[in-house]
Amino acid sequence: MGGIILSVLVLRVMPGNWRLACIVFAIMALLCLFAALRTLPGERAEQSRDPTRWRVVLMKSGMFRLLVIAFVSGVASAAWWSFGPELLQRHTGLDSAITHMLWLVSGGAGIAAVFTGNAAKRIGMRGVYCCSLVFMAASLAALALSHGFAWWLFPVAALSGAGYVILSGVLLVRGAALAEPSPAAGVSLAFLMLAVGQMVGSVAFGQLYGAIGAAGALVVFSGLLGALLFISPEGER
Fold this sequence. Notes:
Layout: H1 2-13, H2 18-39, H3 53-58, H4 63-81, H5 84-91, H6 96-109, H7 116-145, H8 153-178, H9 183-227
């Protein structure tokens, strides 16, 4: 989320010069690479004594269901994270300045995920999971109905950002719990399926966008998130 906020600030300083902005971020990535080379140990990690560990993790009870949920979540999230600025400008008809502000709000709202633990104590992790799905589904549905600027677009953008970060956290935590005694493997698998889902979702949303328009595509992807309400990562309806 911090990267999204920073990207908006960079584009505001260099409006229209997206090539230079990409160069700036490439330089920042290289700086991170050099820092990682200096910080991370150089010796090779000890090879796992169990060559079938990943297979064992995949076979754990509930893991396949979790990975399906992560994949579908990634697919549905692509509507906003891959096409958000495009939708705000072409479908809703906003100018670039308002679009940047909404994107900044969406990225900043992801910070709300720090309260996930407190919320889970009150309504349970399943409740947090359902709330995050409702946040994302409602924001996509509202965006489908939007035409022109309205004040409620700011909470819509905030719900998209917060909902995705909270949902990702729930899935990663669940992956770690299911993969015990190899929690890192569960986190890696859940994160991988989120990323794969976003790649597939970007292509699928683009095709739907061209075929039935932005409103129809947003409603379909909102429906995907709504369908996930009936599938809990904990295995209960």
